[in-house]
Amino acid sequence: MTASRRPLLVAVSGPDTAGTASLVRRLAALLRERGVTVVVLPCHGCLLCRRLPAPPHVRKTAEPGRSAWARRATDPERRGPWPRRVHASLDAAELAARIAVARLLARSRARGGRAVVLTDRGPLDELVRFGLPAVAGGAAGFRRVARGYGLTLLVESGPETPGSLGPEGAAGSPAAWWDRCRGWSRRLPGIVWLDGDEAPSLVAETALERILDVMRERERAVAVPKRGTTGERRHVVVSVYDGADAPACRSGAALVAGKVARRLAEDFRVTVVTAGRHGGAEDRDGIRYVRLPVGRAGPRAGRLLFLALLPLAARRIRHDLWLESFTPPFSTSFLPLTTGAPVIGIDQGRRTETPWRRYRLPSLLVERLGLRCYRHLVAPNNADGSALRRLSPRADVQVIPSGVDRHRIDEALLGSGQFILFLGRIDTWVKGLDLLLLAYDRARPPLDLLLAGSGTPAEERRLASLVAAHSPGPRPRIHWVGCAGEERKRQLLRDSAFLVLPSRHETFGLVALEGMSYGKPVLHFDLPALRWMRDNGDVAVPPFDVAAFGARMTELATDAALRRRLGHRAGIAAQHYAWDETTGRYLALAHRLLDSPAAARRPRKRGASWQTTR
């Protein structure tokens, strides 16, 4: 058995013993859903701690800053250093023996597959609990055990965690616990800090991503066998124009492609092909990123160059499956004609009329011809799915919506808010910003309007002039705050009263789903692509009816009870669009195409490995 198939040992550490045990149960369930064999190993001290209770004279009754219970072996005032070292050595030896048994059990159950051993405490907790010096004998035993752990997830719950240290011997006050913990975390390998103040589902998703990243790195560390031999991980390529080097042009397609790539990397070798100002390749989080040097040409010419270079990249990169996120103006690049491997077209950027207006190119004709080349297509909503079936009758069209991170919604805050929020890419005509400003200027609702986002320099200049025209005077009520990072975006969503989505064209409306996950109503034009929100906390008005849009904007701004009812429904609806579920459907589709007998008979793509050789 190779090193990558050895069970991964993961510890969940932290002073809140109930919270770490709950997180272990959540992680075990999520890993089992992904076909990973999981063995959970509870760690509650050594045999002495479990069998020999502390005598009554050790109990603390009135000492400030301490837990109500302290183990005799962990209290330096009652037990000397030698008993503590012996106790720590016994604890470390028993922990090592129990881990060895759990690994054998996980390996036998996995039968060559992936396996994880989860412990609800780890060597870090024991080192902090005993409070031994770094050079002590007992500490050396725990440090040897810690080297066998692939990952330690340290759940940071703040300096004050009432009753969290448990009866098995707190190492003093919570602040003292964290001081020792920070000291030891710099000496032990594989420590990852998690924010325990977030919602449990978010903590579990973050922890799961860290575990999967370590598993991918372990698998990559093993030498890849020669092509054609058994055991080789099949190679999946995801192509999307928007990337990290083009923040002004970034859209929901980049977010979807990134989430899908991370999920596919659980079972496949994944390469992401994107645009950049400079060519090159890098490895990050177990995924290979290849940049095509088209960013210097600008957003419009860059997209055309990206579409022209994509077939060449498909000829040079060996792959078993290709996922192409469509890029305007032509959307399709006739990629299936350049490769013998299956190609899945993802309709995240196809806008039938927009490219014709902007590029003055025959995109409709090219799109109709190009879509007929695809046998597998994915649409984010039923309306676009029906359109794709008409344009490509022989294709297998799947409707897979976008996803969202789950958030804990405070029922007491539903209906509250300080402003009306538009969040998205600055594209005046496509996003309907001119319609929004006109409706706000005419209706004059009692709440200010905040615009958050960035775009090309030309679009930003156009928006600045529109804002100045519709909000003159020393105290403007329309505020453009520019690009919002992740933390800033979350704050805006939490503080907003409701979202507006005045788009003329949308493929799904990922921003609307993000707002719904915070319990915020969404006001939008009744476009076919946005009807997945119907009766789910949304307010739809006839397309491009500026007067109706302004009237409903005023109604939402003045009626907190209405916002509360709609926000409650929006928060419930958003729970059905978790990333774990939506990306799992992409993973199932990839397995269906690659595990079929036709895929096994298909000859592999020949050519140079280019920049994706690992």
Structure description:
- The protein is α/β, with parallel strands linked by helices and 614 residues long.
- Helices cover 41% and strands 16% of the residues.
- It folds into three domains: 3-221, Rossmann fold (3-Layer(aba) Sandwich), CATH 3.40.50; 235-403 and 580-601, Glycogen Phosphorylase B (Rossmann fold, 3-Layer(aba) Sandwich); 411-577, Glycogen Phosphorylase B (Rossmann fold, 3-Layer(aba) Sandwich).
- The chain has helices at 17-33, 47-51, 81-110, 123-130, 137-147, 174-185, 200-221, 252-264, 299-316, 354-359, 363-371, 382-391, 433-443, 457-470, 486-495, 510-517, 546-558, 560-574, 579-594, 597-601, and strands at 8-13, 37-41, 115-119, 151-156, 191-195, 235-239, 269-276, 280-284, 287-293, 321-325, 343-346, 376-379, 396-399, 419-423, 448-452, 478-482, 496-501, 522-525, 538-541.
- The strands form three sheets. The protein has an eight-stranded mixed beta sheet.
- Helix 13 packs parallel to helix 14 (457-470) and helix 16 (510-517) packs across helix 18.
Task: Please render the helix and strand layout as text.
Blueprint: E1 8-13, H1 17-33, E2 37-41, H2 47-51, H3 81-110, E3 115-119, H4 123-130, H5 137-147, E4 151-156, H6 174-185, E5 191-195, H7 200-221, E6 235-239, H8 252-264, E7 269-276, E8 280-284, E9 287-293, H9 299-316, E10 321-325, E11 343-346, H10 354-359, H11 363-371, E12 376-379, H12 382-391, E13 396-399, E14 419-423, H13 433-443, E15 448-452, H14 457-470, E16 478-482, H15 486-495, E17 496-501, H16 510-517, E18 522-525, E19 538-541, H17 546-558, H18 560-574, H19 579-594, H20 597-601
Parallel strand pairs: 1-3, 1-4, 2-3, 4-5, 6-7, 6-10, 7-9, 10-11, 11-12, 12-13, 14-15, 14-17, 15-16, 17-18, 18-19
Antiparallel strand pairs: 8-9
Organism: Streptomyces litmocidini
Keywords: Glycosyltransferase, Transferase
Region (Disordered): 59-83
